[in-house]
Amino acid sequence: MPDSAVRHSSGTYRYLPAIDPYSSGVAAEPGYEIVGWRFDTPTPVADAFVRLDQELAAENLPAGALAGLALRSPEAFSFNGFNEFNVLYRRLLTERQLLEDDVNPLARTNVVPVADGPAEPVVLAAYIVRKSSDGGGRDYVVAGSGEVDGPLDPECIVARGDLSAEGLARKVAYVVGEMRSRLAALGHQPATPSLVNVYTAHEIPGLARQLSEGLPAVHQAGYVHWLTRPPLVEVEFEMDLNRLSGWRVLSAGA
Q: Residue 4: pLDDT band by 50, 70, 90 thresholds?
């Protein structure tokens, strides 16, 4: 991951280039804000893009105002299966000319509910950049990260296969460190997130203490534990963070 963010060609936000499926995070530039659009019914990925096209047009926003997505999948992917899904996902971005010189600027989180999951990958929410009426420049979305230290390869999983309290603590420590690094690269501090999300199927001893030590925002805003699994087999713990200027509910139908 680069030490600093790259300015999007629109001038509305900056992003952290990462891998083909997603960037590591986005942050609004001065004069702009980021808001969340949450689907009232999680919507299959291709259909969700069509619905977002319609809503962006209705709001007189360009396609490039879409800066991130929160997805849910029916089951954890193998590393090869994850790559196959991402080819289809990236095609949807390419069709909308959302890539920047073939680099994907959009942040993303994609996790797997432990129970009552979707039948296919769906979009839960989208993150939209728009002009701010009060100066802006405060909002950001840090993309989801699990305990994979390096390329997307099983050999890079921190404490791979270790579900002991010590092993889980090592996983948490790595991911919290990654969150801090991404925040710093976006120009923000660990005390500023207004929402801290944790994605794991495990009850981890001492988790609140470990989170609050690395992310002081937890002292003020707490955190949300989603009973989910990361999208890759053998990965056990994932987090993302954001600070937004608001939320709205988006109907799945036009």
A: confident
**Residue 164, burial from CB neighbour count under 10 angstroms (0-12, 13-18, 19+):** exposed
Q: What is the DSSP letter of 190?
A: T
Let me know: does 33 contact 136? Beta carbons within 8 Å: yes
* CA 74 to mean position of chain CA atoms: 17
Q: What is the mean pLDDT of the chain?
A: 95
Starting at the edge strand that comes first in sequence, how are the strands of the sheet with 247-250 ordered? 6-7, 13-15, 25-28, 140-146, 238-243, 195-200, 224-229, 107-113, 66-72, 122-136, 30-44, 247-250
Radius of gyration of the chain, Cα coordinates, nearest whole angstrom: 17
Residue 182 contacts residue 16 (beta carbons within 8 Å): yes
Query: How far does Cα 153 stand from its chain's mean position?
Result: 20
Largest CA distance in the chain: 51
Q: Where are the alpha helices (DSSP H) in the chain?
A: 45-58, 79-95, 165-186, 207-214, 217-221
Give the separation between CA 62 and CA 164, rounded to whole angstroms: 48
Q: Give yes or no for a contact between 198 and 226, defined as CB atoms under 8 angstroms apart.
A: yes
Q: Which helix (H) or strand (E) holds 229?
A: strand 224-229
CA-to-CA distance for 123 and 125, rounded, in angstroms?
6
Q: What is the pLDDT of residue 94?
A: 97
Alpha helices in 36-164 (DSSP H): 45-58, 79-95
Distance CA 99, CA 75 (A): 27
Quote the distance between the C-alpha of residue 107 and its chain's center.
Answer: 5
Tokens in use for 7?
């300015």
- pLDDT at residue 31 above 70? yes
**Between the CA of residue 54 and those of 50, 59, 247, 253, what are the distances in Å?**
6, 9, 18, 10
Cα end-to-end span (Å), the chain: 38
